[in-house]
Amino acid sequence: MPTSSLFVAQVSSGCNSCEETFRHPSMARLMLLTDVGQAPIRSVDPRTGEPFGPSFADATVEDVKQVVGYAGAAARELQGLDVGTLAEGLDRAADAVDAASHELTRLADRETALGVDRLTGEVARTTGQMRMFAALIRDGSHLDVVRSKLPEGAPARTLLRMNLPIGVVGVFAASNFPFAFSVAGGDTASAIAAGCPVVVKAHYGHPQTSQRVADLLTEAFAQAGLPEHVFQLIHGGNETGRDLVGHPELAAVGFTGSIAGGRALFDLSARREAPIPVFAEQGSLNPVVLAPTALEDPQSVASALASSITLGSGQFCTKPGLILLPSDYETTFVEALRSRVEETGPHILLTEKIFDGYRAALDRIGQVLGVDVWTGDYNAEGFSVPAAIIRVDQATLASNDELMTEVFGPATVVVSVHDVAGLQELLGSMGGHLTGTVHGASQDPWTRAAVSGLAPVVGRLIYGGVPTGVAVDIAMHHGGPYPACTSVQHTSVGTAAIRRFLRPIAYQDMPTELLPTVLTELAL
Amino acid sequence: MPTSSLFVAQVSSGCNSCEETFRHPSMARLMLLTDVGQAPIRSVDPRTGEPFGPSFADATVEDVKQVVGYAGAAARELQGLDVGTLAEGLDRAADAVDAASHELTRLADRETALGVDRLTGEVARTTGQMRMFAALIRDGSHLDVVRSKLPEGAPARTLLRMNLPIGVVGVFAASNFPFAFSVAGGDTASAIAAGCPVVVKAHYGHPQTSQRVADLLTEAFAQAGLPEHVFQLIHGGNETGRDLVGHPELAAVGFTGSIAGGRALFDLSARREAPIPVFAEQGSLNPVVLAPTALEDPQSVASALASSITLGSGQFCTKPGLILLPSDYETTFVEALRSRVEETGPHILLTEKIFDGYRAALDRIGQVLGVDVWTGDYNAEGFSVPAAIIRVDQATLASNDELMTEVFGPATVVVSVHDVAGLQELLGSMGGHLTGTVHGASQDPWTRAAVSGLAPVVGRLIYGGVPTGVAVDIAMHHGGPYPACTSVQHTSVGTAAIRRFLRPIAYQDMPTELLPTVLTELAL
Fold first, then answer.
1. How far is B21 from chain A (nearest CA, A)?
2. A29 touches chain B (CB under 8 A)
3. Residues 99-118 of B with CB under 8 A from A
4. Does residue A18 sit at the B interface (CB-CB below 8 Å)?
5. Which CATH superfamily includes the segment(s) A11-21+55-282+485-521?
6. CA A311 – CA A435 distance, rounded (Å)
7. Which chain A residue is nearest to residue B77, measuring alpha carbons?
8. Do the Cβ atoms of B463 and A271 come within 8 Å?
9. I need a labelling partner for B426 at 20 to 30 A (CA). Which of A270, B59, B72, B138 fits?
10. A486 vs B275, B479, B499: nearest CB
11. Which residues in chain B are closer than 8 Å to A432, comparing Cβ atoms?
12. Catalytic one among A317, A330, A406, A485?
C-alpha cells in the first residue's frame, strides 16, 4: 500500500462494519473532509454564482508523492544555500507580485468579490511580508544562536544552539485572503525564509489567482538561483489534502480556515507514524466586552463595531462575533449598532459553501428559543446575504452551543449580562479565541473583570479598538488557545511566524569547519 | 459521564465488538498503557527483587478531578503573585532538598540501585536546576517582552507581546533519574518557574523517594507564600495517567520515558476535545559514527564508549545504542569495546518491567539471522543483567526493525558499513534521535557525511565525545525529531525548557494599569 493513501485507508478501515465508529468524534471530523473537491475545480463569480475560466484537476496520490519527493530533494539543496540568495528570492518574488498587482487584483476580485481596493491593499501587505522575512533572515536573529563555554568538569567544553529549517512544509491556503493568507501569503513567506521548501494546496475559491501567483513565484525563485521545487502549487480537494499531510517526508503544516478543517488536519497528523506539527489558525468568536463607562454614548463604539463586523462581508477570522454588555445598556446599543450596520453592504460571500453555511447557521439560531434575530436587506443574486444581529441573554447563550459557534459572514451575537459576576462566569467557561476586546475606563470593574477573564483565553487583547486589522509586526501574536489555534505557542502573523518552521539543534564541541556555513556568512 | 473518564470510555468504546479496532495502531498503543499499576504500588529493591515499605494507592478518577481542580484555582492565584515570591519558592525548595540529600540518596538507592554517589550528584543537579530557573525568572528574559509603536494608519497604535503561563501542567516522572527527571526535576522546576501549577504522577519505580521529595517541596512552597496546591503529587498506574491527561483543565504535559508511553499520552491528548501540547522526551538510539581517522588506535574511543554504554546500567536516554563504523575496522574495534565493557558492572536494572524488557529484547535480537550477540557476565540476583554487544552488517540492520529499536539497558548495536555511500543511505533512512555523535578528523569524508546526515535527524550533534552527560545550560537542546520527542521544537533540559510552559499574548493599545504587574515589578 503506498504510504500516501494510509489515512484514507484508516478512515475507512475495518471499522466500516461497526456503526459506532462513525459516532467517534474524530471520525466525524475526518468525514467532514469529503464534502468538497469531488468535481474538477473551477472559478465561480460570487456576484452571480456562475463558473468561469479553466478547470483545475485534483492532484492525485501519485502527483502528491512526486511533488513532496521533489520538495524533499530541495530541502537537502537548501542546506548548502547561502542566506543572501534565499532573501534575494523573496525580494524578487515580492517585486514580481507587485508588478502584476493590477492584473492580479482584477482576477481575484472576479473570483472573490472582495473588491479591487481591498485586494490592492492586500497585495501590498503580502509583498511587504515577503520583504520583511527577507530582511529578517539577512539579519540572522531568527536563528537564535546561543553559545556557551562550559565550566571545567562539565560533560562538554562548548555548546552552540541554533535553529535549523524544520523540513518540507505543506500550506493550506485560506479562502478569505486570496493573497495574504494564500499562495504567497505569510505561511509560504515565513517557511521559505526559514529554509523550508513549500507545497501549497490552493484554495478552490480562487484557483486562477492561485495559479497566476504561483507562476510568478516559481519564476522569481528560479531567477534568484533557489533550488528547483523550493515552491510548488497543487490543486485539489480533501483527498489531495489527506495525501499531502500523510506523506512521510512532510515536516509541518500551515493552515488558515475553519475549526472543522484545521482539526481534520490535526487529527490526520496525530495518526501519522511520526506526527508533525500542525499550525492551524482556526475559527474564533473574538469576544468584545463593553463596560458601562464605554456605553454612556453608544454611537462611536457601535459605529466602529458595525464596520468591523461587516468588513470583507464579515469573512475575517478576527470578526467580532460576540459582544457582551450590561443588560441596562443593551437596547440603546443594539439600536445604534443596527442603524450603522444598515448603512453597510452589499455582503457577498466568497463561495457557495460559505453562503450555504451562513444561511444554515442563521436558520438554526433562529430556531433557538429566546433568541431575537434581526437581518438587514440584501439582493438575491449570487452569494449575497443579509447582515444579522442576534440578541440573547446570558442564560440562553450558556445553554445553546450553537450560539457559541462562529458564523462566518456579517453576523454577530449580542449578549446582555446582568452583572460583573455574570461576566466573570461567562468568560471563565470560554474556550480559546484569537482576540478579545475591551471598551471601558481602566477603573471600571467591568473593564477589570474583562481583562483578567479574557487574558487566559485569547491570543491578543485589545483595548478600545476593534479586532479586525492584524498588524504585521515584530510584537504581533495572531494565535491563541484551542480552538482558535492547534498550537497555542505560535503566531501566523508577524516576524515570529517564522518560528513555526524552525527547530533547534545543539552542536557540542563541533569544529567551526563542520558547523553550518550560515554562521560564517552572517558572522554570528 | 464525568469528563475525566472520557478517554477510558473512548478506548473501550463501541468498537469493542469489532475485532479490527484492536489492530488500529493507535489503539494498540493505548492498550500498552494497561500493563502497569493494577496492584498497589510498592517499592522494590532491584538488588534482590524484594518489595519493601508502605503501599501507595492509585489516585482514582475522583482524586484526579479534585487535584486538577485545585491546581486550576492555584493557576488563578498565581496570576496575581509577584515573581520574587515564585523565585523564593524555588530557592527554598532547592535548599530543603539539598538539606535532605543524605537521607534521600540512601532511600533512592534502595529503590533504584543507582548508587549513592551517582544519586548525590543527581540531587545537586536537581537543586541547581531549581536555582537556575529562580534566577531566570528574576531576570524576566523568559517573558520575551517585545514592544512596538506602530506607524500612523496601522490598525493599532501600540503592541506589547509577552509570555503568559500556559496553565496547569501534568508531569509524568521518569524511572531512571529519581531526582533530576522526577518529582522535583526539570519539568516541575521549569513549569513552576513559568507560573504554572504542577501535578506530578510519581514513577512507580521510586514511590517513597517521590513522596518524600513532594513533602519537602510542598512545605518549602508554603513557607515562601506560594498558593496552596501549586504543586501536588499523585501515585497511580496508567488509568490515573489517562484521567490526568483527559482532565479539561490540564494545559500541557511533560513526560520522560519510552516511545510507547510518550506516544500513548500524545494520542490521548490528540483525542481531547481541546488537544494540549505533550512534551514527551522518548527513546533514542543516539547513533555514533566512527570515521577511519578515529579508528587508527581504537582503544581510547572504545574506552569512552564502553563507559557511556554502561553508565547507570545503560539506562540513559542518551546511551549510545548504535555504533556505525567502516567494515575494515570492525573486528579490532569490537574487540577493544568488549574488553572495556567487561571491566564494568554489575548492571542492575531499575524495575522488573525494564528487566523483563531487556531480556526479551536480547532474545528477539538473538533470533535474527546474521546477528552476533555477545553478553558479559552477571549474577542472577534481583534485576541484574549482562552487558551486550550486538554485531550486524548494514543489510541485516536495514531489514530488521528490531535492531533499530532502543534496548533500555547496557547493550549496543555495532554496525559495519561498507563505504561513505552506505553511511549516507543509512543515515538518510533514519527517524529522529536525541543525539548523534561523530568521531574523526574534520576532513575525513566519513566525518563530513556523518555531520550532514545526522544534523537533520538529531537534537544534539556531538563531536569527539559521548552522548551521555547532558549539560544544564542556556545553549543545551535536549530533544529532537520524532520519535525522540513529540515536540521537535522544545527542549527538556536547560533554561530553554521553560518555553514549553509559556505561551504568547499580544496586548494592543492596553493602558499600563491593565497590563500584568510583572512588567512593573521587573521594569520590563
1. 6
2. no
3. none
4. yes
5. Aldehyde Dehydrogenase; Chain A, domain 1 (3.40.605.10)
6. 16
7. A452
8. no
9. A270
10. B275
11. 274
12. A317
- By Cβ distance, the residue of A273, A463, A465 closest to B514 is A463
Question: pTM for the complete prediction?
Answer: 0.92
Cα radius of gyration (chain A): 24
Q: Which CATH superfamily is domain B287-463 in?
A: Aldehyde Dehydrogenase; Chain A, domain 2 (3.40.309.10)
- Which residues, numbered 404 to 433 in chain A, qualify as contacts with chain B under a Cβ-Cβ cut-off of 8 Å? 431-432
Nearest to A475 among B13, B161, B431 (CB): B161
Q: What is the pLDDT along chain B (524 residues), one digit of tens a residue?
A: 232 222 222 222 323 333 332 233 333 333 333 344 457 899 999 999 999 999 999 999 999 999 999 999 999 999 989 999 999 999 999 999 999 999 999 999 999 999 999 999 999 999 999 999 999 999 999 999 999 999 888 888 999 999 999 999 999 999 999 999 999 999 999 999 999 999 999 999 999 999 999 999 999 999 999 999 999 999 999 999 999 999 999 999 999 999 999 999 999 999 999 999 999 999 899 999 999 999 999 999 999 999 999 999 999 999 999 999 999 999 999 999 999 999 999 999 999 999 999 999 999 999 999 999 999 999 889 999 999 999 999 999 999 999 999 999 999 999 999 999 999 999 999 999 999 999 999 999 999 999 999 999 999 999 999 999 999 999 999 999 999 999 999 999 999 999 999 999 999 999 999 999 999 999 99
Residue among A88, A111, A122, A281 flagged as catalytic: A281
B239 is catalytic: no
CATH homologous superfamily for B16-282+485-521? Aldehyde Dehydrogenase; Chain A, domain 1 (3.40.605.10)
Q: Counting Cβ atoms within 10 Å, is residue A117 exposed (0-12), middle (13-18) or buried (19+)?
A: exposed
> So where are chain A's domains?
11-21+55-282+485-521, 287-463
Q: How far apart are CA B357 and CA A243, in angstroms?
A: 36
Determine which of A24-33, A505-514, B67-76, B213-222 has the lowest per-residue pLDDT on average: A24-33
The cell numbers describing B1, all together, are 459521564
Active-site residue identified among B122, B281, B330, B406: B281
- Do B287-463 and B16-282+485-521 fall under one CATH topology? no
| A·B CB contacts under 8 A | 246
CA distance B43 to B55: 8
Side-chain half-sphere CA neighbours of A334 within 13 A: 25
Tell me if B20 and A18 make a contact (CB, 8 A cut-off): yes
Q: Is B281 a catalytic residue?
A: yes
The C-alpha cell that represents B185 in the structure block? 526535576
Cell numbers standing for residue B500: 514549553
C-alpha B170, offset from chain centre: 14
As given in the structure block, the three cell numbers for residue B429 are 533512512
